[in-house]
């Protein structure tokens, strides 16, 4: 399903509201499913941006992902992402296209 994604953290640190407002949303097809997670060494629920061509993920996928908020115009997905071999907390605000004037 296509959403406008805003990644709400940088290396685990929440972005302040003034910086968050300036983040350019990524229009992407989000998939969620249970798969083997290399960094966790087990099966986990993962959220990722679908990439139809071979290659790396467009943005780091969320491991142990869970939808922790949902309303009429969007969802919030929390999890951990791997960057350079380190796991960091991450949260995606995923709003429906057309929501809030987009």
UniProtKB/TrEMBL annotation:
Q: Return the protein name.
A: Prophage PSSB64-02
State the organism named in the record: Pseudomonas urmiensis
């Amino acid at each position: 399903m296509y959403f406008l994604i805003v990644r709400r953290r940088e290396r685990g640190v929440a972005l302040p509201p003034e910086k968050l407002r300036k983040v350019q949303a990524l229009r992407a097809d989000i998939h969620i499913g249970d798969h083997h997670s290399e960094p966790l060494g087990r099966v986990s629920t993962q959220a990722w941006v679908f990439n139809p061509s071979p290659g790396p993920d467009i943005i780091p996928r969320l491991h142990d992902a869970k939808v922790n908020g949902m309303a009429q115009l969007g969802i919030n997905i929390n999890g951990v992402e791997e960057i350079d071999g380190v796991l960091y907390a991450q949260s995606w605000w995923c709003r429906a296209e057309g929501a809030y004037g987009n």
